[in-house]
Amino acid sequence: MCFARSVADALGRSLAFHLTAGEAADCKAYDTLIVLPERTPDALLADKGHDADAIRAELTERKIEAVIPGRSNRCVKIEHDRTPYKQRNRIKRIFGHLKINRAIASRYDQLASSFLGMVHLATARYWLEFVRAA
Q1: Residue stretches of the chain with pLDDT short of 50
Q2: Domain-by-domain residue ranges, the chain?
Q3: What InterPro entries does its record include (predicted)?
Q4: How far is CA 99 from each of CA 60, 70, 93, rounded to the nearest angstrom?
């Protein structure tokens, strides 16, 4: 089983995808996803699954603001800016739009390449709706 990890812009539009194994931790896809956008992001909005010291250090080196809440089991609590973190729901909405396509929601495709192809088709359809509305 594959899961799609996504990079999105500030308007909640998908820019890139990376497939991971079903049980892979979110932070395993970080190295691949951070280099995918053509332009360096100003901030990384992510959930607690990306709360790792190595990720935070690399974001600091790249001059990217880390808007990641700390895990509850951290010894030293790390604060995050809650105002931009509220925009993370746009990323969740991307997957909601994609799951309108039944093949993606139920993961009918057996091959990773077929599943990724369906994700790209659904994303293109979403982008076309976005362009038409503008």
Answers
A1: 1
A2: 2-133
A3: Tnp_DDE_dom
A4: 34, 29, 10
